[in-house]
Amino acid sequence: MASDCVSPTESARPDAAAERAPLFRRPRSVAAVPVVFLGLGLYRAWIEIVFVGTFVVFPAATVSARDLFDWTMVVTALGCTLLARRIGPFFDKRWPFVLGSAMLVASTTLMFASCWVASLAAWAGYAAAVAGGFGIALVILTWSELYGCLNPLRVALYYSASIVAGAVVLYVYRGFMLPWLFVMTALLPPLSFWAASRGFAHLPPQERPATAWTRFSVPWKAVLFMAAYAFGYGLMENGMYGGVFGPHSAPGAVLVAVLVFVGVSFQGGRFDFSLIYRFALPLIVAALFLVPVFGGTQNYAAGFCMAAAYTAQSILIMLICANICYRYGVSAIWLFGIERGVRQIFMWLGRVTAAGVGALESFGIGGEVAVSALAVVAVALATAVLLSERDLSSRWGANFLSGGTDSAAMIRKQELVDRCDEIARTYKLSAREEEVLLLLAQRKTVGIIERELLIANGTAKAHVRHIYQKLDIHTRQELFDLLGLDGRETGPQD
C-alpha cells in the first residue's frame, strides 16, 4: 500500500403570494435563485478535483488519461447529438441520471484508489477517464436541457450563481483530509443529477423540454465563436493551473460570475448582455498577448485575465444556445452536444499546439509570443463572428429545415417567433422590446412578463406602451390581428 497523493490537511413556479406581488424588487432579487439550480456548480467542482488536479495529485492522472477523458466526452456528446431524436429529452427518463451518476462515482473511486494502491495507477487512470468522460457528457447535456427551458435572464442569473457555488465547494473541499475528500467528491455527481431532476420538477409542464422534434441547421456562428475562444484557452491552459487555483475556482472566473449575477439581479430586463463580451475582449487580449510578453504565460495576471475572459464567454455561449432552445424548441441534447463536442476538440487542439510550439525556438522565434499571436488571431475571429449578429435572439447562422416537427403546436410556435422577428425588424423594436413582444404574442400577462424578465411592473408596462406606440396599435386584440393570431384564444388580458 502506498500513498503518493498530495492533498491539503425554482425556475420554480411562484406560489400564490408571489403571483400577487411583484417578484423583482432589487433588495430581494439577489436571493431569487432556487437552490437546486446551483447543482450545476457541483459537476464543475468534480471536474476540477478529479481531472484537473489542482490540489490533489493523482498517480493515475497522466496527460494521456486527461486526453482520453476529453475525447470520451467529445465522442459521447457527439454521439448523443446523432441519437438525440431517439434518446431525448432526458428529463423524463431515468437512465441518464442513474448511468451518469454511476459512471462518475466509478471514475472518482478509481482515481482515489490509485492514491492508496500504487499498482492500480497504470490502468486506473484510463478506466477512470473513460467512465468520467462518458458521465460528464451526460451531466452537461442534462443541465443544458434544463437551462434550455429558461428565459435568458434566468439562465444568466442561475448559471453565474452556480459558477460561484462551485468555486465555494472547491474552497471548502481544500480543507478535507484525503479519505473525507474522496467521500465528499463521490457525492458531487449524484447530487448534481438529483438537483437537475428537481429543477425539471419545478418547471410548469408546458415549460419542460418539448418531445416534438424540430429540424434546425447548426448555428455555426455560435459554434465557431466558442471554438475560437476554446482554442485560445487551450493554448494557455498548460501554464495556467500550476498554481493554487484551477479553472473553476480561479478568482477571475468567480469575479466575472459575481459581476454578471449582480448585474442581472439589479438591472433585470435592462441588463445589457453585450457588456459580457465587451468586458471579456480586453481581458483575453491581455492574457494572450500583452501579459505573456512581459511576464510569461504562467504569470498570475495572465491566469486571472484568461479565467475571467473564458468564463465570460462561457456564460455568453450558454445564453446563446439556451435561448435558441427556449425560443425555437430546438433539442438541447442536439445543440449542446455539437457545441460542447466542438469546443472540447478546439481546446485540445490549443493544448497540442502550445506543446509543439517550442520547436519554434530553434528558428529564433519566441514560443510564448507565437502562442499569444495565434490566440489573438483566434479571438479576433471569434469577435468578428459575435459582432456580425444583432443580438442574442438571433439564429446565429441557423435556419429551420423542412419536415422538421412532429407537432402542430411546435409549428405554430416557430411561425410565431418568425412573425415577431419580422415585426421587430420592420418597426425597429429594440432587443428587449422584441422579447416582450414575443411574450405578449404568447398571451402572457404583464405580471407573468415581469417575472420572466425579472423587471418591475412599471418597466414591463413601459415596454408594452412603447411597443404599442411603434406598432401604432392600442389594444392586445390589435396586436393579435397584426400577428395573425386567433383572437378567440387570447386568454387573460392586461
Automatic annotation (TrEMBL):
Residues 422-487 form the HTH luxR-type domain. The keyword Transmembrane applies. GO terms for biological process: regulation of DNA-templated transcription. Gene3D superfamilies: Winged helix-like DNA-binding domain superfamily/Winged helix DNA-binding domain. It comes from the Bacteria. InterPro entries: Sig_transdc_resp-reg_C-effctor, Tscrpt_reg_LuxR_C, WH-like_DNA-bd_sf. One of its GO terms (molecular function) is DNA binding. Keywords: DNA-binding, Membrane, Transcription, Transcription regulation, Transmembrane, Transmembrane helix. PROSITE patterns: HTH_LUXR_2. It holds the Pfam family GerE. The keyword Metal-binding does not apply. The chain crosses the membrane at residues 30-56, 68-85, 97-119, 125-143, 155-173, 218-236, 248-268, 275-294, 369-387. This is Helix-turn-helix transcriptional regulator.
